[in-house]
Design goal:
This protein has two domains: about 200 residues, Rossmann fold (3-Layer(aba) Sandwich), CATH 3.40.50; about 150 residues, Glycogen Phosphorylase B (Rossmann fold, 3-Layer(aba) Sandwich). By secondary structure, it is of the alpha/beta class. It contains 13 helices and 15 strands.
Length: about 375
Amino acid sequence: MLNPPPRIVLDLEKSRNGCSGLGQFARNLGRALTTEMSTRGLRPIPFVTAAQANDFGTSDAIEAKPWRKEIFQRWYRWTQMGRTPDYALWHATHQQAKYLPLNPKTRVLLTIHDLNYLREKKGAKIDREHRRVARLIRRADAITVISKFVAGEVKSHFDLHNKPLQVIYNGRPDVNQFVAHQPTWLNASRPYLFSIGIIDRKKNFHVLLDLIERLPNHQLVIAGQNHSEYAMEMRQIIQERNLADRVCLPGPISDEERQWLYENCESFVFPSLTEGFGLPPIEAMTVGKPVFLARRTSLPEIGGQRAFYWDNFTPDHMADVYHRGMSVFNASPEYPQLLQQAAARFSWEDAARQYVDLYRSILQLEKVECFQPTLVAA
């Protein structure tokens, strides 16, 4: 009798938030992985919320629920009775993973997106985050990171216990996936600069207000969740500077609106202070738009030679870089195509192939058996 294909759990619960980087990662990688795994003798088991259970082209799924003690106890009883499904490997797709397999025989692959807490937090909070990531590393059989920058940080700050570490870049969006739809809330009669992301202090979006003041004929659109204290501070500055008619914080937007905003903006601006990768710049480059980035963390690695960079955030420097960059872009008819070629370095299909190669390598370390795992909070 033929052995059943190894069942691999993919932690994709972050796909519930399509406006975050982790949400986009889970959604895009999950879809590419389920296709690649099905053609290469592996059985994907998405670990998702109920609302996302049908998003990944497979009827198998584990529903992600808020951690409760009784859930663990019930899974434990089922394990003792031999009634749980068998999983060969568990892919924790981000370093904030809340669940891991309890059974020590179940292999674990950990993907680390960033160590941003080293720059965002202080003192005891850094220590707490560091211990949490260290626990995940100890449980993992192998580790992947999403950029060379993150690889360097992980190696510098953690003992990997001789476990393999591999860089697997994120992919780029499928520009044909969504039909662009113009937002009703945008006055498109004037050119606009576009940015997107959770409006958090680390994104450094407030410096764009200084830039837009020096571009009196332009608008600024910053899409993404905007209920933070930092977002409230930005709204206050916008009011104080009389920029309300030129700066828009629309909150979360649809995929179709996001596509339209990318395709029709004058430029994409992203002054983030700390990024493990940075999907939005790739999305903008995919449609041939000029990209202005902070020369920080992984962004130069992702933007490459075709992006334009701010070395600091003084208003004069930002405006000067912007004007010079737009002059270069407008003087070169081939520049949009060059940006698209630069973005083509990144592919979800390539990423999925590399992850599946790694899954198979991990599982070849020993004979694949029918493991009987339970879940435990990480």
